[in-house]
Write a structure and sequence with these properties.
The protein is an alpha+beta fold and about 525 residues long. The strands form four sheets. Strands 7-8-9-12-11-10 form a six-stranded antiparallel beta barrel. A six-stranded antiparallel β-barrel has the order 13-14-15-18-17-16. A four-stranded antiparallel β-sheet has the order 3-6-4-5, with helices on one face. The longest helix is centred in the N-terminal third of the chain and has 30 residues. Strand 10 and strand 11 form a beta hairpin. Among the domains are: about 180 residues; about 80 residues. Helix 3 runs antiparallel to helix 4 and helix 9 runs antiparallel to helix 10. It starts with 16 loop residues before the first helix and ends with a strand. Helices cover about 35% and strands about 20% of the residues.
Length: about 525
């Protein structure tokens, strides 16, 4: 059947599962946005039309596979992109979000028939699992662009799980080749656990690869989690388990045993804790991620720090974070990018190779001939050519070691988790280094970033690779040295561009007296999107 054929009933291009399959196979996959629009129109028609109950479910399953493919093809338009998205990418994201909403609505339309229709009753667990999946998919879709979602999604999620429990199908196994475990099997409780735990990972603080890694771990280990209606016997009272209150439109939170009451659902994380600790121990002993059974998503990031973070959030009952307070400072000066930051940290010096003398420009030579030195006017003109700027960002609030600031509408710079930033709190104040540690798009369109500052005032220092394989062609690059804070037991560290340093690799520093110093990378403290923060020995 061609997609250009006239609709067959009430504007629909298909009437049952067989013709739905034919129509889906004829979609124009050379034009993904067009295919998405066609599927969305038909999905809306399916949800609003009068279909046989079993045929409706079959059509939903067929459309599920096709929509998953289309969404995957569009994923790079918005996932992992700097914010704000371009107009076209934002349109692609909105289309994807609407498809997920309609998929939830379509499976939800099957729920009433599953209770009394003999043909659909055997599929009650599958329908419940699919509804749960699509609620979670909407949450994750918002997280992909750091956008807040409607808390009503939490209400629908908790209600759906309670209904599955009441119907006795919560633990019933169903096939899920798209989002299930490696064996393609899932259940309503598995889907519920995955949704709750991935949201408990504080996705607003994670990059796209880190989100993918956490998802992959959950797919491997979701069956290790048990959802309990009451605390385990003999559980240590000091431990704050991860708990969901189905009556509240929020996710899981650590709750003290003494505060558990009512319809709380307690997540027994003992199995996942053991699996995480085993891998953490292996990585600390320099075992390879693949040998530890970690998923391919572990490449390209620091799996050790990520699993330590997840263990703290999921298994250790991490206490609530201290509330932010209003700041006395109304605006902060921000600089992004290592080259720009170096310029301002050095007080306005353009970076040059320290072991080479630059050829003077014609204007510089004329200044020296006439005035005996390069004039400030010439220096300012040369600086302007590089377009180094400090942007003023309104301060929302502050907490210990971190500040929340709002992206001004006038800026052209995009923002992303893990980017290096320099910040000063006043026109004459010194710059301190930090990173974008959290990001959120508010419902009113504002983009708020959290900047976590590194301890110590930075000193600019040229740096290059010192190992024999890379030294010959290695150029000096901008880097920064942060002093030790002995009272706080914080070692000295270096902030370097991505790719320059790795554990055990030699690096060379150019000192202020003109000498050089070789050292070796010891530990990676931070792995950002455009920098690394390291210690040496």
């Amino acid at each position: 059947m061609s997609v250009s054929q006239p609709p067959t009933r009430s504007g629909m291009p298909f009437t049952e599962a067989r013709s739905c399959k034919e129509w889906l196979n004829a979609l124009p996959l050379t034009n993904i946005p067009q295919a998405q629009a066609l599927v969305l129109d038909s999905l809306r028609g399916l949800n609003q039309g009068d279909f046989d109950a079993l045929e409706r479910l079959k059509c939903m399953e067929l459309m599920r596979d096709k929509i998953a493919f289309l969404q995957g093809e569009q994923r790079s338009r918005y996932f992992g992109k700097s914010l704000p998205l371009s107009a076209n990418d934002n349109t692609a994201w909105n289309t994807g979000r609407t498809l997920l909403e309609e998929m939830e609505a379509g499976y939800r339309a099957c729920l009433p028939d599953a209770a009394h229709n003999a043909a659909l009753a055997p599929h009650a667990a599958l329908i419940a699992q699919r509804v749960t999946r699509y609620i979670g998919a909407q949450m994750l879709f918002h997280a992909a662009v750091y956008r807040r979602f409607d808390p009503a999604l939490w209400t629908r999620l908790h209600q759906q799980y309670q209904q599955a429990e009441a119907a006795g199908v919560a633990t019933e196994a169903v096939k899920d080749s798209l989002e299930g475990t490696d064996d393609g099997i899932s259940s309503p409780v598995d889907a519920y656990v995955q949704v709750v735990l991935i949201q408990a990972a504080y996705l607003s603080e994670m990059t796209a690869p880190q989100m993918d890694f956490a998802e992959a771990l959950l797919r491997m280990w979701v069956r290790k989690v048990r959802v309990l209606a009451s605390p385990k016997e003999g559980a240590a009272p000091a431990i704050h388990p991860l708990v969901v209150d189905p009556d509240k439109p929020i996710g899981a939170r650590p709750v003290a045993h003494a505060d558990l009451a009512g319809q709380h659902r307690i997540f027994d994380m003992e199995g996942i804790s053991l699996s995480l600790r085993k891998r953490i121990h292996g990585l600390q002993n320099e075992e390879e991620p693949a040998a530890l059974g970690l998923p391919p998503q572990s490449s390209g990031l620091d799996p050790l720090s990520q699993m330590q973070r997840l263990h703290k959030l999921w298994c250790e009952g991490a206490p609530p974070r201290p509330p932010a307070k209003e700041s006395d400072v109304k605006a902060a000066g921000l600089v992004f990018g290592i080259a720009d930051i170096h310029f301002f940290v050095t007080g306005g010096k353009i970076f040059e190779q320290p072991d080479r003398k630059r050829e003077l420009t014609r204007q510089e030579k004329q200044d020296i001939e006439v005035f005996g030195q390069v004039t400030s006017r010439t220096q300012n003109r040369m600086m302007a050519e590089h377009n180094f700027t400090v942007e003023s960002w309104p301060v929302i609030d502050e907490m210990r070691g971190a500040w929340r600031v709002q992206r001004p509408a006038s800026t052209s710079k995009g923002v992303a988790i893990g980017r290096l930033v320099a910040m000063r709190m006043g026109d004459a104040a010194p710059f301190f280094l930090g990173m974008v540690s959290a990001l959120s798009q508010e419902t009113d369109g504002r983009i708020i970033i959290t900047i976590t500052l590194f301890p110590g005032r930075p000193e600019a220092v040229p740096l290059r690779a010192a190992d024999s394989r890379n030294r010959a062609n290695a150029k000096w690059v901008e880097a920064f040295r942060l002093p030790p804070l002995e009272k706080a037991n914080i070692p000295a560290s270096l902030v370097v561009p991505n790719g320059v340093a790795s554990r055990g690799r030699g690096i060379e520093l150019w000192l202020s007296d003109g000498n050089t110093k070789e050292t070796t990378v010891y530990e990676m403290l931070e792995h950002g999107t455009d920098f690394d923060r390291i210690t040496t020995f």
